[in-house]
Amino acid sequence: MAPQRYDAIILGGGPAGATAALLLAKRGWSVAVVEQQLFPRRKVCGEYLSATNWPLLRAVGLEEAVRSEAGPNIKRVGLIAGKRLISAAIPQPQLGGAVWGRALTRARLDTLILEMAHAQGAEVLQPWHALTLTSDSERHVCQIVSEETGSTCELESAVVIAAHGSWDPGTLPTQSPRRPACASDLLGFKAHFVGAALPVDLMPLLSFSGGYGGMVHVDEDRVSLSCCVRRDLLERLHRYEGRPAGDALLEYLFHSTPALEHILAGATRDGQWLAAGPIRPGVRTCYGQGVFRVGNAAGEAHPAVAEGITMAMQSAWLLAASLTSGGTKRLGRAELDGVGRVYSAQWRRSFAPRIHAAAAVAHGVMRTPVVRMALPWVERFPSLLTWGARRSGKADLLIA
């Protein structure tokens, strides 16, 4: 059977892939999205949407839906360390008037974006996953398989967009090979809580030895608690406690950060703990041989700065703008190489500083001596938190 032809094949239907599909479909491109999981599905993620995303959400027709479902306005950033909770104003983008970020669960956000992409004409193949990706000088052929029936088919396109994240290893040219486990690997955990005593407008960073975390109010009156924990710490906790890893981690957090125990004292967990990873922060290749990368596949910031969803959606916007700037869908390899150079340069200018800032924050808050030295200064000058949030990109606009 001959391959099915498209203007673009997108591997992954999360915020990056679905946003790219939506934007290209709106410009008349034929798009196939290959997503291996059925939606809605829960995902390890901080779930915060920066205020800088409102112009993009408005442009793709999702602003009203997100505003109607997301959690409350987040007006303050904070730091939880030991018994202390320090907060400061969150920086705002220059959009005119008060504009605040909010949080929406990935189960709902991902579904909203992918459904809108489908409504604009993108073909969504779900649950399917890519088996192979082969290329020549003019085209790519991707063999995919159905998770439900095991049937296979082939897709063909001059453009492939890798939006499959970075956590799962694989055999595709855009995926990383499986690496040996390392004691310093950071594993992600997330759970939702009902009845937490977290101020509704506050998004604090949680500091503890061997990891870091964050909290924010999401939809349905819940608080999302997400953490990154070193593998060696988690293994020690799990062996010592003899309980599920999430429960052992929470007990450790209560012991090391009493301020968190106070916030969750009257709360109940809504659903099970989720775990994933290890995370792979860093800057990667944005383009090569007709294959573009968006979201975590292009580069990943430590979740300490809560910019993952923002970078995913905005990188998709940068790429779609570059691909459609010439007004034609028939791009040869020379034209794609030119788009790749432009997109790569724009991506690095927009996101590399955030990744470097996130790494500095993450490595600092995981080290108790560093936090102990910094706390008196942060308590005296809480505006340092505002400055740090600004450095991480909280007020940087790509689309106005």
Give the arrangement of secondary structure elements.
Blueprint: E1 4-5, E2 8-11, H1 15-26, E3 31-34, E4 48-49, H2 54-59, H3 63-69, E5 76-81, E6 84-89, E7 102-103, H4 106-119, E8 123-125, E9 128-135, E10 140-146, E11 152-157, E12 160-162, E13 186-194, E14 202-208, E15 211-217, E16 222-230, H5 231-241, H6 245-256, H7 258-264, E17 268-276, E18 282-283, E19 287-288, E20 291-293, E21 299-300, H8 308-324, H9 333-365, H10 368-380, H11 383-391
Parallel strand pairs: 1-11, 2-3, 2-12, 3-8, 5-14, 12-20
Antiparallel strand pairs: 4-7, 5-6, 9-10, 10-11, 13-16, 13-17, 14-15, 15-16, 18-21, 19-20
Helix pairs in contact: 1-4, 1-8, 5-6, 6-7, 8-9
Describe the structure concisely.
The chain has helices at 15-26, 54-59, 63-69, 106-119, 231-241, 245-256, 258-264, 308-324, 333-365, 368-380, 383-391; strands spanning 4-5, 8-11, 31-34, 48-49, 76-81, 84-89, 102-103, 123-125, 128-135, 140-146, 152-157, 160-162, 186-194, 202-208, 211-217, 222-230, 268-276, 282-283, 287-288, 291-293, 299-300. The protein has a domain at 4-42 and 106-177 and 282-360: 3-Layer(bba) Sandwich (FAD/NAD(P)-binding domain).
The description of the largest β-sheet is: 7 strands, mixed
Alpha-carbon distance between the two ends? 46 Å
Strand numbers in spatial order across the main sheet: 6-5-14-15-16-13-17
In the CATH scheme, the class of the domain at 4-42 and 106-177 and 282-360 would be: Alpha Beta
Q: Beta-sheet strand percentage?
A: 25-35%
Number of strand elements: 21
SSE class: alpha/beta
Separate helix tally:
11
Mean pLDDT: 91
User: Which geometry do the CA atoms define?
Assistant: globular
CATH architecture of the domain at 4-42 and 106-177 and 282-360: 3-Layer(bba) Sandwich
Helix percent band: 25-40%
Q: Over the alpha carbons, how many angstroms does the gyration radius reach?
A: 21 Å
Report the CATH topology name of the domain at 4-42 and 106-177 and 282-360.
FAD/NAD(P)-binding domain
Unreliable spans: none
